[in-house]
Structures are given as structure tokens and as C-alpha cells.
């Protein structure tokens, strides 16, 4: 082996050894930093956990205040939407009743007679005064005498009309008993007593 | 003469390795120093926060973070309710008509 070859071999071996030393050191440094980062994260997590145990109730309060408010508002929106849907149904029913009363056809007249009869039967008085709106007075004038024969009571039509879309208000002569049987009164009663059934029919309960 | 040159070369190479070793030690030592500093900083910060929390101060950051998280959750909750409201409003006309008929039947004497 020539001296040049010997030198080249020595250089190559030394460079390899140098690289190996540096690579090993680099890997070790990397491992040290990686471990430190893990330890750092562990300390941070432990701290967070610890702090949460100290201020847990305050954090829960913040959470409950904000999310609770959103839930409350949301439930209110749902409730309002349901009410709006019910309003639409009852408004639509009201419009149909108004139209029916305004038209004053036979069906409506039959309804008013039934309303008078119903009130009279419920009151059980011999003499009754019937109040209604101006339009209904016209046909009730003719109908009441016939009704007196059907029901064992005498009716007198109040000459003073009342503000109502339709139906009647029946009272005894001393006005100690009054039976409100107007359409809007009955509609309101249905709204109060049957709202959940209407909601069920609409599928919004 | 040649032998002398080879020996000189050997000595230089030896020096190269010694320097590499020194560089390696420096790298490891530097990393260790950096790691120690990181851990020390994390511990100090942890202690500082724990002490402040025990005194009932320095919680603003956590509360603000919780508030941010809760607001995000609240927005999601609101969106879900809005979707429910939209769904509620999609009532078929037949159902509405049937409900109106039901109301009329209840209002009018039978």
C-alpha cells in the first residue's frame, strides 16, 4: 500500500468517525429536547387540571351562564314559534267565523239559535233577555218567539245592540245571571282549553 | 520522510476527532441547557399560576378562555334551536286546515 493510499484510508476513516460522533450527538440533543417538550406539556396539563379544581365552580358558572342563556333563548324562540302557529290557526278560524256571521246565512242563523238555547238551558230561568249585534237582531226578532215554544222560557230581545262579531249574551231580567255566548267568547274559551289539542293536530306539541 | 508525513496526518486526524467530540458535547450540553430552561420556565409559570389561583387572582385568562368556549357552544345551541324553529314552521297546509276545522267545530254549537 502506498503512503497516499494509506493517507486516504486514514482520512476516510476519521471523517466517518467524526460524522458518527456528530450524528449521535445530534440525535441525543433531539431526544433531550423532545423529552423536555413532553415534560413541559405534562407540567402545563397538570397545572390546568389543578387550576380547574380550584376555580371549577367559577368556570362552570361562566359556562352555565352563557350556554344556559342560549338554551333559554332557544326554548323561548320555540315557544314563540308555536304560539305564532297557533295564532295563525285561531286567526284563520276567527276570519271564517266573521265571514259566516257577516253572511248571516241559514247555517249561521241555526248557530245563533243553538247559542240562545244553550244559554237558556244552562241558566234555567223563565224570563230571559237576549242581546246581540245589530245584524243578528233582525232575524232574532223573528226567531225568538219560536224558540220560546221549543224551550220553556220567554225571550225578550234587548233593543240595544252589543259589539260582537256574532252570537248572544243572555241574562235574566235583574241581570244577576249573565251567559256570554258570543263567537269571540267561545273562540277564546277554545283557545284556552283546547290549545294543546290544536298543537297536537299541527304536530307542534 | 514519508513516515513523518503519515504521522503528522494521523495527528491532524486525531485532532479532528477530538474537535468533533467537543462539538458533540457542546451540542448535547446546549440541548440539555435549553431543555432545563424550558422545564424550569414551565415549572415557574405553573407555580406562579397556582399561587395566583390560590389567592383568587389571575383567573381572568381561564375565565376568558372558558367564556370563549361557552360562547362557541352557545352559538351551536342557538343554531340548533333556529333549525328547530324553521322545521316547526314547515307545517303542511292540510294539517293547518284540519286544525282550523277542529277549532270551528269546537266553537260552533253542535
Report on this structure.
Chain A has two domains: 1-103; 104-202, 2-Layer Sandwich (hypothetical protein PF0899 fold). Chain A has four helices and four strands, in the order ααβαβββα. Chain A has helices at residues 3-103, 106-123, 134-150, 183-202; strands spanning 127-131, 154-157, 167-171, 178-182. Chain A has a four-stranded mixed beta sheet with strand order 2-1-3-4. In chain A, helix 2 crosses helix 3. The longest helix of chain A has 101 residues, at 3-103. Chain B has two domains: 1-58; 71-110, no CATH class. Chain B is 89% helix and 0% strand. The longest helix of chain B has 53 residues, at 2-54. Chains A and B meet through helix 1, helix 2 and helix 4 of A and helix 1, helix 2 and helix 3 of B.
What pair of chains forms the biggest interface?
A-B, 73 and 67 residues
The percent of residues in helical segments of chain B reads over 70%
The helix-strand sequence of chain A is HHEHEEEH
Q: What is the assembly state of the chains in this entry? A: heterodimer
Beta-strand segment tally of chain A: 4
Q: What is the β-strand count of chain B? A: 0
Largest sheet of chain B: none
Give the domain tally of chain B: 2
| SS strand fraction of chain B | under 5%
Rg calc of chain A: 45 Å
Averaging pLDDT over every residue of chain B, what do you get?
91
N-to-C CA distance of chain A: 101 Å
In spatial order, strands of the major sheet of chain A run 2-1-3-4
Low-confidence segments of chain B: none
**C-alpha termini separation of chain B:** 134 Å
Overall pLDDT metric of chain A: 93
Rg of chain B, Cα atoms, Å: 39 Å
The poorly predicted ranges of chain A are none
Structural category of chain A is alpha+beta
What is the beta-strand fraction of chain A? 5-15%
